[in-house]
Design goal:
single chain; alpha/beta; Dihydrodipicolinate Reductase, domain 2; 14 strands; about 30% helix
Length: about 300
């Protein structure tokens, strides 16, 4: 499916051409993008460790909107803080967005609406889990040489599967991490962690509690969120798109498209036409996710 819209370009040094939607131009180096005069939108799809340099170079030369592939960086340092300050001082906070696209899933949005309408009453516990296998992420490619397997390039399960961290904070603002367990537990030949279990609690009264499990070395595959509240418990399977009220055992929602089709297309359409820019993850929010990840590695154990 092609993505309609004006003059959109992607900076990616390694993404296969066949993975890029029709109508989108791919460039392998920054100079190629910098040479384009009338650029309106750009996607940064380089290694996480290169994101900040690429974003700074781009926005210093081009007045375009930028969507940065998640995570926004591999760690938050002086350059990231300086970029954030520049964006906010110049009232350009909505100019750089981060690709946490679970926000665009119709099931996640339904859950958010239920939470906003107090359909759960008091929320007690949230469980989120994603289990995948790094070896199967990029068919035909050597996983040991991928960005995901490299500490220097910003790999590891916390950064690679950080969608769930952003999603939790979007659904339940005010959640803070209190405990973490981060390990390399599989037989994958990588120099980064492949398993993480994080505990969150609300900053005001410690409720709700949230438990996130991220695994990229598993032989089984699942991705779900369960919200247990005063009035009901809801389970949403993100892979099948089915949402069930576990108290009545009834299906209350069914997504009609795959998760990838729905979230990526909706995010790109919103980015191109600046629809609901508040729905996007901002640069500041993206940095906050990376700060949580750094804290999880520090607290570990």
């Amino acid at each position: 499916m092609g993505i309609p819209g004006p003059n959109i370009h992607v900076l990616s040094r390694s993404a296969p051409i066949e993975s890029i939607p029709n109508g989108v131009t791919v460039h392998r180096n920054f100079d190629a993008i910098a040479a384009i005069e009338s650029i309106t939108h750009a996607l940064i799809c380089t290694a996480a460790s290169q994101h900040t340099d690429d974003v700074v170079a781009l926005i210093s030369k081009k007045k375009c909107a930028v969507l940065v592939e998640k995570p926004v960086c591999s760690k938050v340092g002086v350059e990231e803080e300086r970029l954030l300050e520049t964006l906010e001082i110049n009232d350009q906070s909505n100019r750089v967005m981060v690709g946490y696209n679970l926000r665009f899933d119709s099931g996640i949005r339904k859950l958010r609406g239920m939470i906003t309408k107090n359909s759960f009453g008091s929320v007690y516990v949230i469980e989120m889990a994603v289990s995948q296998n790094l070896q199967q992420w990029r068919p035909g490619a050597d996983y040991t040489k991928s960005v995901s397997a490299s500490r220097d390039l910003g790999g590891g399960v916390l950064l690679e599967l950080s969608h769930e961290i952003d999603c939790l904070r979007w659904l339940f603002p005010g959640m803070r991490m209190s405990m973490s367990k981060v390990e390399k537990i599989s037989d994958l030949m990588i120099d980064v962690e492949d398993f993480a279990h994080l505990t969150f609690e609300h900053e005001r009264n410690r409720r709700p509690l949230a438990f996130l499990t991220l695994d990229m070395g598993s032989k089984s595959f699942h991705r779900y969120i369960r919200v247990r509240g005063e009035f009901r418990t809801v389970f949403y399977d993100l892979l099948s798109g089915t949402m069930i009220d576990e108290c009545s055992m009834t299906t209350i929602f069914q997504r009609t498209k795959t998760l990838t089709e729905e979230t990526q297309i909706r995010q790109l359409e919103s980015f191109l036409y600046f629809q609901n820019t508040k729905e996007h993850c901002s640069y500041r929010e993206g940095l906050e996710v990376v700060n949580i990840i750094e804290a999880a590695k520090g607290i570990n154990g």
